[in-house]
Specification:
The chain is of the alpha/beta class. Helix content is 40%, strand content 14%. The chain has seven helices and five strands; from the N terminus they run E-H-E-H-E-H-E-H-E-H-H-H. The protein has a five-stranded parallel β-sheet, sandwiched between helices. The protein binds adenosine-5'-triphosphate (ATP) and beta-nicotinamide ribose monophosphate (NMN).
Length: 168
């Protein structure tokens, strides 16, 4: 049984993340997804709660060809302890998929096999670019799975982000 681990903040979950998970689904038996910085919400860079991000992921992955687990992970103050913290909170995994330099470094130092997933139209498909489009009143819906559009509408996510920007 092989299990792959993928972590992100998913603020919001977008088509780039979906393409990584679809690549992983062909390569491992099960996928463990960590929702990083789970304790942070209602900021410009992290507008959505961990629970809202759980909804985005689970609804978007309903037809993924591989069993998956979604685990919210709070940050810890010491990077040197983070891998142990992740391991304590997740089902066991053998491979990590990440392009985040710190994540790659910490897992490599811990002796874990780390792979870099192919980037999917990175210029447009980043959380930062999507949040900026929401703030600018530009179309963003085509950059995320349809289920994420539904969740963000349900929670009035664009209005929340605009209010946070207004009170900054
Ligand atoms: N377009 C993409 N294609 C493939 N992988 C991506 C893409 N965007 C992000 N990732 C990867 O997904 C993981 C989680 O990234 P994250 O949740 O920070 O998304 P992000 O779009 O980079 O967000 P932000 O811009 O808010 O920092 C990282 O390993 C990141 O490299
Ligand atoms: N010390 C820590 O808590 C620590 C270290 C490395 C990564 N992380 C988290 O892992 C996630 C990585 O995701 P991104 O690739 O989206 O940045 C982030 O939520 C980040 O905060 C946390």
């Amino acid at each position: 049984m092989s299990r792959g681990f993928y972590v992100g903040r998913f603020q919001p979950y977008h088509n780039g993340h979906q393409s990584v998970l679809e690549q992983m689904a062909c390569r491992v038996d099960e996928i463990v997804i960590g929702i990083g910085s789970a304790q942070i919400s209602h900021t410009l860079a992290n507008p959505f709660t961990a629970g809202e991000r759980v909804l985005m992921l689970i609804r978007s992955l309903s037809s993924l060809k591989c069993p998956f687990y979604v685990i919210p992970l709070e940050d810890v103050q010491r990077n040197a302890l983070w891998v142990a913290h992740v391991r304590a909170m997740t089902p066991p995994f053998d491979t990590v998929y990440s392009a985040n330099p710190l994540v790659v470094q910490l897992f490599t130092e811990a002796g874990v096999d780390v792979r870099s997933p192919n980037m999917h139209e990175r210029l447009t498909h980043s959380g930062t670019a999507i949040r900026q489009r929401m703030l600018d009143g530009k179309a963003w819906e085509h950059l995320v799975p349809p289920a994420v559009v539904d969740v963000i509408q349900e929670i009035h996510g664009v209005e929340r982000l605009q209010q946070i920007a207004g009170s900054d």
